Amino acid sequence: MAKYETIEAAVRTEFGKGSARRARVAGQVPAVVYGADVESNLHITVDHRTFAALVRNHGVNAVLQLDIEGEKHLTMIKHIDQNVLTFNIDHIDLLAIKRGEKVEVDVPVIVEGEPAPGTMVVQDADTIKVEADVLSIPEEFKVTVEGLEFGAQITAGDIKLDEDTTLVEDPETLIANVVYPEVEETEEEGTEAEAEAEATESE
């Protein structure tokens, strides 16, 4: 069973842009908790540093237990709004979940290794959608292109999953593709253009 952190949260009593701005200035992040087990949306605030550290350590699909003034809620991150300039977290959507429940999530895919000399890797998909137990959500999947030749491809169906994780993504979804660098073709075209120009001048 995966471990999860407990974060203290406070109920929001004020709403609107002004109150949200004041919360952020005070080092808090506005958040909302929703789900089948929540009668009405819970509007809360959590400590910005604590939550940012949780995301760094456990990823954007992290599961966490909220302690809302003594009341415990098991949740998972559904969406994070970040400031486009500062990248600070502006708002969080949290989904109330239950132990043993399965959820669909987009999990990051990390491409490692170096392909054959003279080739390069193009990553076509950064995530794949899977279904997993809420307490066993993978933080990331790693695939290697070490030594792969031109034309080699890795698809979603090639990624090894745990027994309790099911692929929802189309198995044919292209993850990584080994190609020749386009710059070589550009250089050749440039050389041909220079040769034609020189021939024209000599005429």
What is shown here, in short?
It is built from three helices and 13 strands; from the N terminus they run E-H-E-E-H-E-E-E-E-E-E-E-E-E-E-H. It has 203 residues and is of the alpha+beta class.
Describe what you observe in this structure.
The strands form three sheets. The chain has a six-stranded mixed barrel with strand order 1-3-2-6-5-4. It has two domains: 94 residues, Beta Barrel (Ribosomal Protein L25, Chain P), CATH 2.40.240; 81 residues, Beta Complex (RNA Polymerase Alpha Subunit, Chain A, domain 2). The protein is elongated. By secondary structure, it is of the alpha+beta class. β5 and β6 form a beta hairpin. The mean pLDDT is 88. The chain has three helices and 13 strands, in the order βαββαββββββββββα. The protein starts with a strand and ends with a helix.
Task: Please specify the SSE layout and strand pairing.
Elements: E1 5-11, H1 17-25, E2 28-34, E3 42-47, H2 48-58, E4 63-68, E5 71-82, E6 89-96, E7 102-112, E8 120-123, E9 127-133, E10 141-144, E11 153-155, E12 165-167, E13 174-179, H3 182-202
Parallel strand pairs: 1-4, 2-6, 7-10
Antiparallel strand pairs: 1-3, 2-3, 4-5, 5-6, 7-9, 8-13, 9-12, 11-13
